[in-house]
Amino acid sequence: MIQEVLNEPSVQRHEAQLHEVNSIIGVEEWRGPITRYITSGELPSDPHERTKLKRRACSFTLVEGILYKRGFITLLIKCLGPNET
């Protein structure tokens, strides 16, 4: 076995930088269309988006106005928005 002792790190360290990931400012929150479809049956005008929403919405339910996803391991998983995480 060959072992080498390093006096300095072999990789340079960089200062941590914060990046905003998946920023949705100005974009409708993802829960909105699903909630509207479940509560009032409202669908998008685009046929492709309409089909996609119908398929996706069958995995969700509303309990006292809060959107939950039906899970396999846990019964219900609460859906959070960007300010709730």
What report would you give on this structure?
The chain has 85 residues and is α+β, with helices and mostly antiparallel strands. The protein has a domain at 31-78. It contains two helices and three strands; from the N terminus they run ααβββ. The chain has a three-stranded antiparallel beta sheet with strand order 1-2-3. β2 (66-70) and β3 (76-78) form a beta hairpin. α1 packs across α2 (47-57). It starts with 30 loop residues before the first helix and ends in a 7-residue tail after the last strand.
What does the main sheet amount to? 3 strands, antiparallel
Task: Return the structural class.
Answer: alpha+beta
Helix-strand pattern, N to C? Answer: HHEEE
Total DSSP E strands: 3
In percent, how much strand structure appears in the residues? 5-15%
Helix content: 10-25%
List keywords for this structure.
3-stranded antiparallel sheet; 25% helix; single chain; 85 residues; elongated; alpha+beta
